[in-house]
Design goal:
Strand order of the largest sheet: 2-5-6
Oligomer: single chain
Distance between the termini: 12 Å
Order of helices and strands: HEEEHEEEHE
Number of helices: 3
Strand content: 15-25%
Structural class: alpha+beta
Largest sheet: 3 strands, antiparallel
Number of strands: 7
Radius of gyration: 17 Å
Length: about 100
């Protein structure tokens, strides 16, 4: 059994900002965690090759002729390694069962 060092959301947010993966003990998926996406810039020349953007959206973005900037996103990874966006809930903010996720 893992030895957890639990903390509140304030500390979880600091861990996210430091690049750590964090999780809640109360989540039913014990392999799930969240992380903060590393800010990045995507040149217009890369947009046509992006597999995560639909073709009509690519046309819009290419037409703007601007570099894409990813920032301020928190993502959740589940036990099947699916990555989705994650919106923090009030329950998450008030929870005291956050921990740094490691395998």
């Amino acid at each position: 059994m893992k030895d957890y060092n639990f903390f509140n959301f304030s500390e979880a947010l600091e861990e996210l900002k430091a690049g750590q993966a964090v999780a809640r003990h109360s989540w039913s998926d014990d392999e799930a965690f969240i992380f903060m996406q590393v800010p990045s810039k995507v040149p217009v020349s890369v947009i046509p090759n992006m597999t995560s953007v639909p073709e009509p959206v690519k046309k819009i973005l290419i037409g703007r002729e601007e570099t894409l900037e990813y920032h301020d996103q928190i993502a959740r990874v589940d036990n099947q390694t699916n990555i989705t966006s994650y919106a923090i809930s009030v329950e998450d903010v008030l929870a005291e069962d956050w921990y740094v996720y490691t395998e």
